[in-house]
Specification:
Number of helices: 3
Oligomer: single chain
Number of domains: 2
Strand order of the largest sheet: 1-2-3-4
Helix content: 25-40%
Length: 94
Amino acid sequence: HAEYRDIHADGTAGTAHWEAYYTFQGHPVHNVIDATFSFKHGLITRHVDDFDWPRWAGQALGLPGRVLGRTSFLHSRVRGTARRQLEEFRAERA
């Protein structure tokens, strides 16, 4: 589940603090996130989440995440996987 607070927005930008609680590959995760948004014509054109990457990696991936959580290798790998999955999701709905 997710909890949201401190949500602020105008016609062009917004911010929010949210906390996500979920299980990732059998590992419980509690991710604390500050998000920023850009809007155009009523749609989100940019969304950036800022969170403690090493903490997330340790929770989500267990020991490998704790060991590799501060490396650019793991960050790039997870980012690439997420990007590919988003592109596949968008292609299915086009």
